[in-house]
Amino acid sequence: MSLPPLQEPYYLNGYHPRPSTGVLSRRKVPLLHIALFLVTLVTTSMAGAFQQGANPFSDPKTIFLGLPFSATLMSTLLMHETGHYVWGRVHGIHATLPYFIPAPPFVVLVGTFGAFIRMKSSPANRQALFDVGAAGPWAGVVLAIPAAILGLSLSEVRPLNPFDEGGIILGDSFLFSALTRLVLGVSANEVSIVLHPIALAGWFGLFVTFLNLLPVGQLDGGHVTYSLFGYWHRWISRGSLIAILLLGFHGWVGWFLWVVLLSMLGVDHPPTLDLSSSLDPRRKLYGWCTIALFILTFMPVPISLADRPALPTGEVTPVAYRPGYAPAVRPLTFLYRP
Questions:
Q1: Inside any domain, residue 317
Q2: What is the spatial distance between Cα 226 and Cα 8, in angstroms, rounded to a whole number?
Q3: Is the C or the N end of the chain the one with fewer CB within 10 Å?
Q4: CA distances to 11, 68, 137 from 85, in Å
Q5: What is the average pLDDT across 282-302?
Q6: Is 326 within a domain?
Q7: pLDDT tens per residue, range 68-127
Q8: Where are the alpha helices (DSSP H) in 112-231?
Q9: How far is CA 224 from the centre of its chain?
Q10: Which three-class secondary structure state does DSSP give residue 115?
Q11: pTM of this prediction?
């Protein structure tokens, strides 16, 4: 069995920290963290505006139309990272404030690649590792679920129409499907739901939760799995990576990107400082609850495209032309079909 040395740095959500020097520097204003947060707030607000059919590049005031989506999504990401940070401090682990990662809203539909924190010292034992790893997903989902419930109550329910316009079809998870039935009372395969921006942000919050809970490497799910199973994590991690690769051939091509990313970051988990530690019965129960959360939020095909169907043969569609008229930006439709 080959394991990284004890000096191997830990990281959360796929990012390596710098090794701790043991010297605490004087507190400074976290300008970089604040700047990244504000930039990401702008890019996610622009993404939300694009979803509403507005163009903040031509009319900057329309960026405010994206705030319901942006504020909900940013709050969920912030809660997730705050869970890691707070429990890191509880266990005496030196960690940074969250780094938010902005993304071009015309390339990445939500305007962000997520957020992460960096741990500058290693967890002392499996208990500390578990608490820090599991706290983020649970903190995020505590906000994502109410957001999904509120947003679903504001969403538009449409009957299935074979000639409906194309859009982006969001994947189904056990949890989001249950929330949909609870709030809207619709049965499967009977309707299409045009998600309200708050519901869309709630859905992405659950999406981020299950991605981080993948039991691979040093993702949050990797921390939880290593805390529970120790040495067996390496085989669970490798098996999960193979399963992700197979899913890429049967649905979402984004799984291929995750296979490459996780392979580059490493599929093994370094040991805690205390090699003989194990979880107490209470944390083992919480660990299995965290695995259940992963199962409830997992989506084999998170995102797919619904092409606009062709008109029947021989049908003529009149097209009006008005000189000097520039049509508005067409809204980006996110459909959910439970």
A1: no
A2: 15
A3: N
A4: 12, 26, 12
A5: 96
A6: no
A7: 999 999 999 999 999 999 999 999 998 899 999 999 998 888 999 999 998 888 898 999
A8: 126-153, 174-184, 197-212, 220-229
A9: 17
A10: strand
A11: 0.83
